[in-house]
Design brief:
The chain has about 100 residues and is mostly helical. The protein has one domain. Helices cover about 90% and strands about 0% of the residues. The radius of gyration is 26 Å and the shape is rod-shaped. The protein starts with a helix and ends with a helix.
Length: about 100
Amino acid sequence: MPTPADFAAYEQAQPGAADRLLKMAELDQKAGVADMRVQRLTNFVLDLLSQAFLYCLVLAAVYLALHDKPLEAFFAGLAPIVIAIYANTRKKTTQSTDEDQ
């Protein structure tokens, strides 16, 4: 945003320019807020889907174990553990990289 003196200079050079600059800044702010809302909603939905996937794998492991498929149950049960560990370590490295910048 320009300084108040610059606003006056813009208004002198072109009547209505200062008002247009303010409207442009307000629209930019509204667009930024809308983008942030969409990003948060997207992250929320992706988190729900990933958790549902992990629970499905756990349920599959239990089902397989109950139906005498121990090897398949082992791998179906191991997959959510590996995924959770990978996601957790990735999240920590991403946070540390963001903090470094």
